[in-house]
């Protein structure tokens, strides 16, 4: 009997005890930094995600192969005008992407979201989050709150939890340890009205524990004197910027800001340079299948992407697929985040799907092959009385090119995101 089945059987035999336990976990979440207010807090399920060491090794393999390809794509973009022409970036953004990094790693932090089949160990890519990657603290807090989970408390197995927060700060500081003073000033930067603020303040405290000065700052509250970037509140000289603001927001809203001038003049170490946008933009799926890009990859790498990338097309009147076949397709904006503007045909009636296709046609959207996620039985004991099949999303964190941990999300709908009934669950590895 699998661990999932053992948990399910225990919950069914101890239903009231399990329900009480679930409410304790819910209350602990509400009282924690996972509550952003206005009923906006993390929802979870009662069975954590439990992977084997075989799965862990598979994740290492996936990350290594994928990140090696990312590095080649970024290098090709910088060297080859033909590759640059495959992306829809403005001249302004292209100029920022082509700025040199002050460290050797192309993508300091990313999360590769995959649909992973726990039985076959095969997978398909969902998307690549290289821009404003988040939820490391949510992952850690949910693992901490397993102390309230009655099934976990009686589980005799030993598990490994991959720590993601201090690990990220160590990885962050290692990128420029030969360029920064002993107690560097780190600015965590975003548009604060859009930010996952609670997580940013958690990281502020972690940076301080690691001997740094640190401020959480709105990108508009940075001043550049021609030599150094400063916080307008403390006038501290900023040594490193941890960029959480996503590139699309910067391009839309940051014209003329001191932050961009400081980056242009290489006056501060930007962790999360704009070249991350090359991989983050959803058009990357099409670029990776283009003959020009394939020429930069090995036969093995091209076969890897052919097998694991969902088919992706511009949503226009020349799209070479049957758009009426709604259950096989999903609509996505070319450059967005948080699953904004994403529509899965399986979640819509035919008339609703036809309306979304019409609305998004020729408006910077993609239509992509819909991948049926791996599903397993789980239960939200706070809101439900019965088990149901939940679709799984496996997010593989990558720090400085190395596999760092997993963020597990589930949904009983066709799209796995907070706006589509998402549940986040803690991730464990059997030892």
Identify the CATH homologous superfamily of the largest domain: Glutathione synthase, substrate-binding domain superfamily, eukaryotic
Helical region count?
Answer: 16
Report low-confidence residues grouped into runs of 5 or more. none
Largest sheet: number of strands, sense, barrel closure: 6 strands, antiparallel
Q: Gap between N and C termini, in Å?
A: 17 Å
Nearest-integer average pLDDT: 94
Beta-strand portion reads 15-25%
CATH-derived architecture of the largest domain: 3-Layer(aba) Sandwich
Structural class of the helix and strand makeup?
Answer: alpha+beta
Short description:
This is Glutathionylspermidine synthase. The chain has 431 residues and is an alpha+beta fold.
Description:
The protein contains 16 helices and 19 strands. The protein is of the alpha+beta class and 431 residues long. The model has no long low-confidence stretch (mean pLDDT 94).
What keyword list fits this structure?
6-stranded antiparallel sheet; 4-stranded parallel sheet; 431 residues; alpha+beta; Dna Ligase, domain 1; 35% helix; Rossmann fold; 16 helices; 2 domains
List the helices and strands and how they pair.
Blueprint: H1 3-13, H2 15-30, E1 49-51, H3 53-79, H4 81-84, H5 91-97, E2 109-116, E3 123-129, H6 136-144, H7 150-154, E4 159-160, H8 165-174, E5 185-190, H9 197-209, E6 213-218, E7 222-224, E8 229-231, E9 240-243, H10 247-253, H11 258-264, E10 269-271, H12 277-280, H13 284-288, H14 291-294, H15 299-308, E11 312-314, E12 329-333, E13 343-344, H16 350-360, E14 365-369, E15 375-378, E16 388-399, E17 402-411, E18 422-425, E19 427-430
Parallel strand pairs: 1-19, 5-6, 5-9, 9-10
Antiparallel strand pairs: 2-3, 2-16, 4-19, 7-8, 11-14, 12-13, 12-14, 15-16, 16-17, 17-18
């Amino acid at each position: 009997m699998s661990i999932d089945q053992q948990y399910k059987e225990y919950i069914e035999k101890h239903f009231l005890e399990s329900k009480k336990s679930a409410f304790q976990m819910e209350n602990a979440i509400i009282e924690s930094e996972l509550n952003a207010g206005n009923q906006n807090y993390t929802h979870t399920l009662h069975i954590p995600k439990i992977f084997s060491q075989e799965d862990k090794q598979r994740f290492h393999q996936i990350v290594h192969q994928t990140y090696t390809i990312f590095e080649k794509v970024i290098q090709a973009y910088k060297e080859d005008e033909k590759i640059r022409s495959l992306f829809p970036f403005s001249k302004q953004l292209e100029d920022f992407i082509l700025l040199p990094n002050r460290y050797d790693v192309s993508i300091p932090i990313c999360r590769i979201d995959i649909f992973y089949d726990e039985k076959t160990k095969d997978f398909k890519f969902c998307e690549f989050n290289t821009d404003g990657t988040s939820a490391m603290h949510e992952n850690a807090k949910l693992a901490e709150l397993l102390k309230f989970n009655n099934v976990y408390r009686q589980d005799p197995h030993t598990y490994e939890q991959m720590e993601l927060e201090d690990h990220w700060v160590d990885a962050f500081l290692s990128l420029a340890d030969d360029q920064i003073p002993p107690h560097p000033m780190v600015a965590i930067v975003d548009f604060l009205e859009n930010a996952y603020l609670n997580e940013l303040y958690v990281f502020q405290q972690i940076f301080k524990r690691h001997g740094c000065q640190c401020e959480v700052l709105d990108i508009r509250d940075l001043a550049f004197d021609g030599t150094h970037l400063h916080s307008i509140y403390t006038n501290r000289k900023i040594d490193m910027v941890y960029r959480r603001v996503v590139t699309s927001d910067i391009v839309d809203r940051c014209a003329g800001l001191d932050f961009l001038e400081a980056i242009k003049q290489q006056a501060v170490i930007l962790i999360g340079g704009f070249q991350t946008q090359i991989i983050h933009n959803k058009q990357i799926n099409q670029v990776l299948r283009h003959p020009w890009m394939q020429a930069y990859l090995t036969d093995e790498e091209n076969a890897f992407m052919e097998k694991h990338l969902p088919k992706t097309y511009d949503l226009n009147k020349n799209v070479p697929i049957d758009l009426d076949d709604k259950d096989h397709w999903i609509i996505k904006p070319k450059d967005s985040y948080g699953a904004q503007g994403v529509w899965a045909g399986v979640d819509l009636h035919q008339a609703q799907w036809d309306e979304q296709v019409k609305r998004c046609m020729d408006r910077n959207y993609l239509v992509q092959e819909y991948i049926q996620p791996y599903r397993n039985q789980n239960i939200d004991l706070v809101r439900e009385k019965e088990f149901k099949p939940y679709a799984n999303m496996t997010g593989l964190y990558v720090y400085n090119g190395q596999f760092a941990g997993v963020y597990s999300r589930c949904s009983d709908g066709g799209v796995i995101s907070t706006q589509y009934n998402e549940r986040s669950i803690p991730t464990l590895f059997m030892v």
